[in-house]
Write a structure and sequence with these properties.
The chain is of the alpha/beta class and 276 residues long. The chain is built from twelve helices and six strands. It is elongated, with a radius of gyration of 23 Å.
């Protein structure tokens, strides 16, 4: 067939979805226009999805599954496409986080997702859209994921959650003064819970700071350990205890060097005085 673009399903989840859609269409001998008629979309739209120029929407995936009789296959593939807004390894990490007995967090620059208010999370997501880093749909997924993660750790028995925030997390303004004030108030509420510890790692820790990037250590119900660390471009989930134990040791050193919870709360309360 002339001008038929070759598809590489290994290139990305978007490409894999498009290649699978084309194969299903070819098996039935339909043109793109004919498939579009069955699904209620234009042939141009079908072409854009097949060639990866347009990501599928949940509505598109559901219609395709119905037309091809593929159960929920294309909807599952579509979720993989939308999860490209998340760093590698993060989706799997979230699954372990939701059942962990202990969660140890260290974050730099922004308040970690488990402690974010919806408004704060939305500002970060909208900023990513403006930078062209994610689509509007992917931004909505990020905001929804924050809420899902927070709901998942409100369970019995409650997990122990220890959070050490770099001072930049509480001093860096995100959104309006009202948004930042509400976020600081949320941190104070978190610190007041019986199953949490909140500490600030001050700027003057300098070289004594053992981590330069965000890191999380999970203790699972069977007492096995797992760590997750990320850079700007990728995340890494580590399950091998030989590599996780040194990270846990460094986290204990971080806690020892950070401000106490009482001093951290006092700093946050002082910062709130400067906001509405």
């Amino acid at each position: 067939m002339l001008n038929r673009k070759e598809l590489d399903p290994s290139a990305s989840p978007v490409a894999a979805f498009g290649e699978r859609l084309r194969r299903l269409r070819d098996e039935r001998g339909w043109t793109q226009d004919e498939l579009g008629e069955h699904m209620g979309f234009s042939g141009t739209h079908i072409s854009a999805v097949e060639t990866g120029r347009r990501p599928p929407t949940p509505r598109f995936e559901a219609r395709a599954d119905k037309v091809f009789g593929t159960g929920h296959e294309l909807q599952r593939r579509g979720r993989a496409v939308r999860h490209t807004a998340l760093l590698e390894g993060f989706e799997e990490y979230v699954g372990h986080e939701s059942r962990a007995a202990e969660i140890r967090l260290y974050e730099v620059g922004v308040v970690p997702g488990l402690l974010q208010t919806p408004e704060y999370a939305r500002v970060l997501a909208e900023s990513a859209v403006k930078r062209g880093a994610v689509t509007t749909e992917q931004a909505e997924q990020r905001v929804a994921l924050v809420a899902d993660r927070q709901a998942a750790v409100v369970r019995e028995p409650l997990p122990l959650v220890l959070a050490v925030l770099d001072e930049s997390c509480v001093r860096r303004p995100i959104g309006s003064p009202e948004t930042m004030n509400a976020q600081l108030a949320r941190l104070l509420e978190f610190a007041d819970l019986p199953h949490t510890v909140l500490q600030v790692a001050p700027f003057d820790m300098g070289a004594r700071r053992p981590f330069d990037l965000p890191v999380t250590v999970l203790t699972l119900p069977d007492r096995s350990l797992m760590s997750y660390a990320e850079s700007a471009q990728r995340g890494h989930l580590e399950r091998e205890s030989t590599f996780v134990l040194p990270i846990l040791t460094a986290y204990h050193q971080l806690q020892a060097e950070a401000m106490s919870q009482a001093a951290s709360v006092a700093m946050i309360e002082e910062l709130r005085k400067g906001s509405p």
